[in-house]
Write a structure and sequence with these properties.
Order of helices and strands: EHEHEHHEHEEEEEEEEEH
Helix content: 25-40%
Distance between the termini: 22 Å
CATH architecture: 3-Layer(aba) Sandwich
Radius of gyration: 16 Å
Structural class: alpha/beta
Strand order of the largest sheet: 2-1-3-4-13-12-11
Number of strands: 13
CATH class: Alpha Beta
Strand content: 25-35%
Number of helices: 6
């Protein structure tokens, strides 16, 4: 008898390349549902929070379906959440775009701001400086991933007290500006890049996350 596949909900709040995300997670070995239903999102083995476009618009859409509560409740219960692109950015306290400051989900301290690079958006393939001991990047430490963004987190502010495991923070650089490319923090994992658009390396990363769900 074969083992059942992990169930993943891709959160539908009006933002993100939803169909491509669904297909990518199906290829990674999950049973995938695209929905905004709170009960389904709470019950899933893993929740994926995609996102493209403006920070403020994404947060408005997320709040319309009580998405910030879904994320917070899952994480408080140790249930896995994966954020992608703006779905990564909204995990931080605030985003500042075009002079507008928007409150995020506040799972991590920090500000999403415009990259200090000569050319934005940062669009295309880039290497990453993988955090020591990373599980997410195991086997793809030297690979390139696909980024499309003009804003990022340029300073990691979360302080740990030594009693809990410190988050694993992976960095990248564009135009001489360093920014956070991914974070692994217990049940909350998020990437600034698009793993679903990152070829074999991204597919490997998604399989790694999906395979971790049944043991979570």
């Amino acid at each position: 008898m074969s083992l059942s596949k992990p169930n993943v909900v891709v959160l539908d709040y009006g933002s993100g390349n939803l169909r491509s995300a669904v297909r990518a997670f199906e290829r990674a070995g999950a049973t995938v549902e695209l929905t905004s239903d709170m009960d389904a999102a709470m019950a899933a083995d893993g929740l994926v929070v995609p996102g493209v476009g403006a920070y403020e618009a994404c947060m408005r859409g997320l709040r319309a379906i009580r998405g910030e509560r879904i994320i917070g409740r899952r994480l408080s219960g140790g249930r896995p959440v994966l954020g992608i692109c703006v779905g990564f950015q909204i995990m931080f306290e605030t985003g500042v775009e075009h002079g507008v400051t928007t409150e995020g989900c506040g799972e991590w301290p920090g500000v999403v701001e415009k990259l200090h690079a000569p050319v934005v958006p940062h669009m295309g393939w880039n290497t990453v400086d993988v955090a020591e001991g990373s599980t997410l990047f195991a086997g793809v430490e030297d690979e390139r991933f696909y980024f499309v963004h003009s804003y990022g987190v340029r300073e990691w502010l979360l302080q740990t007290d030594g009693r809990t495991e410190a988050p694993k923070v992976t960095w990248a650089e564009h135009g001489g500006d360093r920014f956070v490319a991914a974070v692994e923090n217990g049940p909350l994992v998020a990437t600034q890049f698009h793993p679903e658009k990152s070829g074999d390396a991204g597919a490997h990363l998604l399989r790694t996350w999906v395979s971790s769900l049944k043991s979570a």
